[in-house]
Design brief:
Layout: H1 6-45, H2 53-60, H3 62-95, H4 101-108, H5 110-113, H6 116-127, H7 132-141, H8 154-178, H9 182-190, H10 195-224, H11 227-232, H12 241-246, H13 256-291
Length: about 290
C-alpha cells in the first residue's frame, strides 16, 4: 500500500491523538511527582560516599528511628482498630436489610469527605484542654484542671484515624460481602457447620481481597496523614514523619539530609503497597464484571 494512504494516515492521527492525551498527565506527574522524588533521592545520596551509607546513617540516628518507629506504630494500630470496628459494620450493612440502612451508609461516608483539617479541629474543640467535654467535667466535678488529657497522645491520633477511615472498610469489604450468595451460608449450616465456621471458612475468605485492600489503603493514609498529627499531637513531644518533614527547619526537627534519607526509605514500601492495592482493586473489578 502506498505511503500516505488513508488507513495509514488515520493510524498516524490516532497515534497523535493518543500521544496528545497522555502528554498533559505525564507532564504533570513528571513535574510534581518524579522531579520532587528525584530531588529527595539526590539529597539522600549526597550525604554518603557509598550508595547505602546515607540510609544506614539515617537509621543509626535516634531521631530518625524514633520518628519512623512512631509513624509505623500509629499507622499499624490505626489499621488494626479500623478493621476491628469496620468489619462488623461492613457485614451488617452488606448482609442485612433494615430501615434506615441507606441513610446510615451515607452518614458513614461523611467523615471521609470532610477536610482533615476540619476533623482535627473538631476533635480538638471536643476533647482538647478547653474542649466541651473537659469544660463540662470541670464544671460538673468542680475541677480546676482538665481531667482528660486527649491531645498529644497516641490515642488521640488513633481515634481520629479510625473515625476518618472506617468508611473505607465499610465500602470495600461490604461490597465483597454483598455479592455472597446467602444460599452458600445456608448450605454450610445445613451440612453441620457452626456460625463461627461459616464466618471463618465461607464469609471471610470471600471478603479477603477487600479486607486486604482496605487494610493497605488505611495504612497508607495513616502513614501519610499530616493535618491530624499536626493539630492533635503537640510538637515536638511526638511527631510523625510528614510532620517532621513539614516543620523543617526548626529546633527540634531532624536534619534535612536525614529526613531525605528516611523519606526515601519510607516511600519505597508505600509505593509497593500502592501497586499491590491497585492490582487487588483491578482484580476485584474484573471478578465483579465476570459475575455480572
Amino acid at each position: 500500500m502506498p505511503s500516505g494512504s488513508p488507513p495509514e494516515t488515520a493510524h498516524l492521527r490516532s497515534v497523535a491523538r493518543t500521544a496528545a492525551l497522555w502528554a498533559a498527565p505525564l507532564a504533570f506527574l513528571a513535574l510534581f511527582y518524579a522531579l520532587p522524588m528525584a530531588q529527595v533521592l539526590r539529597l539522600s545520596l549526597a550525604r554518603g560516599t557509598s550508595l547505602g551509607a546515607p540510609f544506614v546513617e539515617a537509621f543509626a540516628s535516634p531521631g530518625v528511628r524514633g520518628v519512623l518507629g512512631f509513624t509505623f506504630l500509629q499507622a499499624s494500630l490505626s489499621t488494626l482498630l479500623t478493621l476491628l470496628l469496620g468489619l462488623p459494620g461492613a457485614y451488617l450493612l452488606a448482609r442485612y436489610a433494615f430501615r434506615g440502612r441507606s441513610a446510615l451508609l451515607a452518614l458513614t461516608s461523611v467523615p471521609f469527605v470532610m477536610p482533615t483539617l476540619v476533623v482535627g479541629a473538631a476533635f480538638q474543640a471536643l476533647l482538647g484542654p478547653r474542649g466541651w467535654v473537659n469544660l463540662g467535667l470541670m464544671a460538673l466535678l468542680g475541677l480546676s484542671q482538665p481531667p482528660i488529657e486527649f491531645l498529644n497522645s497516641l490515642g488521640a491520633i488513633l481515634l481520629a484515624h479510625v473515625f476518618y477511615n472506617t468508611t473505607i472498610v465499610l465500602r470495600l469489604v461490604g461490597d465483597f460481602w454483598s455479592h455472597l450468595d446467602p444460599r452458600i451460608e445456608a448450605a454450610a449450616r445445613t451440612l453441620g457447620a457452626s456460625r463461627w465456621q461459616v464466618l471463618r471458612l465461607v464469609v471471610f475468605p470471600v471478603a479477603a481481597p477487600g479486607i486486604f485492600t482496605a487494610a493497605i489503603l488505611v495504612f497508607i493514609h495513616a502513614w501519610n496523614e499530616f493535618f491530624f498529627a499536626l493539630i492533635i499531637l503537640t510538637y515536638p513531644a511526638v511527631q510523625t514523619l510528614p510532620v517532621g518533614i513539614a516543620l523543617f527547619p526548626g529546633e527540634y526537627t531532624m536534619p534535612w539530609g536525614e529526613i531525605a534519607a528516611a523519606s526515601t526509605l519510607a516511600t519505597l514500601p508505600l509505593i509497593a503497597l500502592t501497586l499491590i492495592c491497585q492490582r487487588r482493586i483491578v482484580q476485584g473489578l474484573s471478578a465483579g464484571a465476570v459475575k455480572g
